[in-house]
Write a structure and sequence with these properties.
about 280 residues; mainly alpha; 2 domains; about 10% strand; binds zinc ion
Amino acid sequence: MKILEMPKLNAEDVYTEIKTNSKNTENIDKRDRLENLETLVFKRYKEYEMINVSLELISESTISDKMDKEALGSCYNRNKSGYLEGEVVSTILSIQSAQHKNSCPYCGIDKPRTIDHYLPKSVFPEFSIFPPNLIPCCGRCNTKKNDRWLENGQRLFLNFYYDSIPNVRFLTSKLVYSLDEENQIPTVVFELIKHSEIQPKQYDLIERHFNKLELLEEYSEVIEEELSNIHDLVIHNETLSIEDHRENLRMQARMFARKYGVNYWKACLYDAVINCDEFFKRIC
Ligand SMILES: [Zn+2]
């Protein structure tokens, strides 16, 4: 898990350009509404940027008119006149590192093919096309997160633009074998651990993020292919000693940690294998 590159787009320019390219139609006087809302929206942009890491403190949206909500929400919709939305999204995606182009910041499993509104646009329509509120993520995380973001005054998910991600291990895993010694396929159990270097408030947020996205369960399900890769690597290099295998896996784990952060699930899986005597005993 690593933080994302913040899009260097001027949020006010983006809004103004969308407004200028909007039309009033029979159904909605979108352009006029965006014009009327502009001062309020820009004020909210400033509030968002000032609060940044403590977004749970942001005041409630005062935009309650249904048509105003629709006009703002539609700034993000794909339609013939809404070309800018695609431009904003592709800019946000294109500036990310190669790793983040391929791996969702929320889970680290799938490609980020969608954009999450960190503050949901149904609750905060003014941030529909506000670049710092638009976070690339995978379809699964986007669906799981949905319109949730706050519970009992606390944020539910890490914000990969503003939150800092501790550079110490808080995700760990272990291999669990059945008693049947012929069975070489272990179950992999992931857990969160409270590292002493992580502030309690920060850890609680990490825990909520993992729980709400059901990441521990998800990792246990997706490890199959990676585990079989490791299995293959060891089985087909029978001339190597167990210590050599461990060293090879260590190199791989370090590479994952460098690229995706120490809490990347594959780095945790490799470390679990390295530390599991039973793994080598059953296949070597
Ligand atoms: Zn994801």
